[in-house]
Recover the amino acids of this structure.
């Protein structure tokens, strides 16, 4: 990293009072994206939502199969929501520590640990036959996975103010690709010996563990990308220490070649800030906006497969696992193509999508699974604002980008842990007790939209420090 040379004409304070000397220097013209490294980060970004979404199509049937509901269909949503929430709950407990660690030892080692965790936990999930083993597998995946926040920090590391918006503009498309591919893999590959007996009928393992194949595909992809990351992805930041030194295996050393005496004061300012110093106004605003959108998004995605799997007479569509997987995949693809960029428009679009749930249920009860029902399903396209840029731009200094992203991701993980359990429990309770005509969950999510509108109004029109 290079720095501008200060002389007697250099102002002590910049005009906007927010640009710091440790930030990247001003760039004349637009810097091209480093596509070699950025493409690897994007491919890893595709894998992350696949990990969480691959179970969505078969989660309701899995809950029925392991018998935890004792045959009570109305309680399926509660356990599906719990399964989804515990992943994010354990992620919330560890993500800030992974991000802070990435500021110290580098981004690449944390990515490799995360990919290892994904692979082990997905194989474990596919081999689980009890509710508690399923829960432990998802918790393991959440606890070992700090990749989402580290990848955002890497994007900030390898870009500057001229190409950062372009780079972050690609992330939603990669994320939506994962959201589309995950349900497709889960929906089409679950129970393979029943659906594809000529291909898998002789494999006893797949008969005993009908959900191992889709989970194994994701686990294997994680291993493949572990190798790609290890061999081809370069470290994007300058580590200040190593795992060996953190564990006390080597004594810390001072390298005179790395730190010039004249740069000592400047480099001291490049150290990651303590947690309390991260809680500045702009970090809080960006984090709250990200959390508000995440709450709506995860709640919507959590209730979707449960709604599709619920019998028609109880207010759902009664679809099987492959149909649910295909619908979620198609919606993910369309959402990636129609990705919106306006925060307010993105949030407001959830109102008509929530209203479609009771409309779809009413139409299915009257007409069955007609073409018009599927047309209404196709209109449920959530549109998310690209808020990731605000998180990185709000960091107090460049050395704290990882910690800032980690703080935001921790808050979002807590929100995502609350959303599925809250909304799916409300859904189960509303169809069981017929609260608000069985539509209480949708009114609850409408309230979340109102909160997001209020929080989003505090976002600036331009990124901070631009």
């Amino acid at each position: 990293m290079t720095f501008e040379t200060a002389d007697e004409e250099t102002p002590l304070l910049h005009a906007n009072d927010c640009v710091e000397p440790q930030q990247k220097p001003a760039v004349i013209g637009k810097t091209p994206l480093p596509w070699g490294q950025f493409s690897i980060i994007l491919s890893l970004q595709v894998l992350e939502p696949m990990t969480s979404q691959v179970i969505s199509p078969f989660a309701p049937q899995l809950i029925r199969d392991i018998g935890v509901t004792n045959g009570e269909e109305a309680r399926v949503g509660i356990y599906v929501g719990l399964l989804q929430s515990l992943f994010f709950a354990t992620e919330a407990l560890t993500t800030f520590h992974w991000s802070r660690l990435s500021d110290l030892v580098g981004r690449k080692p944390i990515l490799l640990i995360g990919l290892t965790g994904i692979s082990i936990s997905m194989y474990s999930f596919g081999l689980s036959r009890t509710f508690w083993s399923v829960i432990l597998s998802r918790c393991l995946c959440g606890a070992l996975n700090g990749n989402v926040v580290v990848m955002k920090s890497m994007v900030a590391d390898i870009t500057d103010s001229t190409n950062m918006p372009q780079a972050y503009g690609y992330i939603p498309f990669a994320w939506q690709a994962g959201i589309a591919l995950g349900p497709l893999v889960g929906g089409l590959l679950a129970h393979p010996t029943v659906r594809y007996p000529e291909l898998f009928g002789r494999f006893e393992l797949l008969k005993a563990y009908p959900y191992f194949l889709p989970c194994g595909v994701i686990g294997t992809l994680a291993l493949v990308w572990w190798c790609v990351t290890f061999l081809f992805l370069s470290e994007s930041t300058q580590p200040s220490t190593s795992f060996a030194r953190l564990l006390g295996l080597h004594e810390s050393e001072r390298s005179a070649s790395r730190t010039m005496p004249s740069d000592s004061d400047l480099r001291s300012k490049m150290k990651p800030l303590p947690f309390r110093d991260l809680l500045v106004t702009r970090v809080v605003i960006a984090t709250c906006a990200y959390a508000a959108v995440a709450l709506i998004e995860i709640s919507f995605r959590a209730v979707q497969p449960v709604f599709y799997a619920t019998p028609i007479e109880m207010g759902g569509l009664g679809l099987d696992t492959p149909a649910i997987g295909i619908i979620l995949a198609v919606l993910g693809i369309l959402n990636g193509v129609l990705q919106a960029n306006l925060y307010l428009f993105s949030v407001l679009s959830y109102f008509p999508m929530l209203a479609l749930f009771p409309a779809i249920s009413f139409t299915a009860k009257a007409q069955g699974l007609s073409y018009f029902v599927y047309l209404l399903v196709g209109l449920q396209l959530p549109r998310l604002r690209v808020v990731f840029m605000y998180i990185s731009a709000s960091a107090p200094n460049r050395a704290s980008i990882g910690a800032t992203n980690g703080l935001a991701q921790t808050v979002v993980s807590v929100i995502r842990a609350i959303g599925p359990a809250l909304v799916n429990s409300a859904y189960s309770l509303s169809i069981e007790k017929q609260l608000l005509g069985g539509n209480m969950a949708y009114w609850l999510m409408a309230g979340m939209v109102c909160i997001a509108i209020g929080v989003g109004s505090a976002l600036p029109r331009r990124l901070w420090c631009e």
Remarks:
- Residues 401-433 form the longest helix (33 residues).
- Confidence is low (pLDDT under 50) at residues 1-24, 252-269.
- Residues 105 and 239 are 5 Å apart (CA to CA).
